[in-house]
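Field reference: sequence -> structure
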Amino acid sequence: MATPVSHFFAYISRLRWIRRWGLMRNAIEENVATHSWEVATIAHALALIRNREFNGQVNADRIATAALYHDATEVITGDLPTPVKYHSNSMRAAFSTVEHKAEDELLDLLPSGLRGDFAEYIKESEWPADIKAIIKAADRLSAWFKCQAEINAGNTEFEPAAIKIMERLQTDPLPEVHYFLEVFAPSYSQPLDHLLGD
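Structure field:
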């Protein structure tokens, strides 16, 4: 008997059409697919930094894969701006319920034999605390880089967000976050010729 056709990846691919930062004027458009890739690369780096520099024992590949899917439910829910999502406890609880239902709907699109394999990446609500913390930090770093790019493009609307995000990053308890800020973050504002060693 043939395996039924699955719409999972066709659905996930539509993350590229979901715009981020929808309530703000953007000089540079960003979509959820691009953001997810950036978060995955940063999360992978944070995990490796933890293991190499701070005697960690996390699975960097698992973290990178989970980060790729960290906003997958937004293909169903859309990108709800942070100030709206966290406006109140009741809003946060309601959106959490919606996200859980979206996780289940995405998993239901998969062939039954693969659902368990993908569940550990799609069901963010069940991630271990160490994975969740690293991916959240990577998400925050990505948001700060977005703010910096907007500010560098002359868009001052992102200045308050940049300040708030940097305050959170500076108080982050993960040493790998501070390492990333010191070693990698300064290059984000450099022109291409400087990045190539010119």
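Note: The two ends are 60 Å apart (CA to CA).
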